[in-house]
Design goal:
Helix content: 25-40%
Structural class: alpha/beta
Order of helices and strands: HEEHEEEHEEHH
Oligomer: single chain
Radius of gyration: 18 Å
Number of helices: 5
Shape: globular
Amino acid sequence: MKKIIISILVGMGLLLSSCSPFSLVNSTVYNNSNVSEYKTFRIVAPPEGTLPPGMTMVTYYNIAAAIREQMVDRGFTESSTSPLMVNIAITIQKEIETAPALPPGYFAYNGMYPYYMYPRNLYWQNYYSNAKVITGIYREGVLTMELVDTDKKIALYSSSVSTILQPGDSQFRNLSEIAEAVKTLFSDFPVKLLPQYTTKSNK
């Protein structure tokens, strides 16, 4: 009996240790969009906006590389002229002094807000009055990506994963952990992995 109990405890320990520290907290398709209609994509570049406070260029490149891999594995081709842009946001504490407190493109969630690299108001003009806010999912360190048609100036899809900050710290996670977080970010993406990448995603 004692051996059985020990075996159960060991099994539970292995199960808990294998669980991902990341969870998908939002996955929303906007405007009845069909993302699979797009064949190319581009990721927001720092010159197009501003890096969220605390994010270094190294962290940006790590996040962008992980997003790029997921998009390519779904059959998209990266192109600097693509109308499909992947915007990136980090939810941070509302302690940063701004003028006004919430500049255009940001929206408060329980005292915090996602800081989008590419100003959201450029493609979501009626966001403040019409957005369906999903409350309770945004907390410090949540990574959000938003797919935008920059030609039509409309949002197509958004997803969020928690949390890419180190537990109890303001530092971003390392490269492998960011890749795992982005994999979770794409776990409910409307375009599935190409067959040849399905096995890789399960490893």
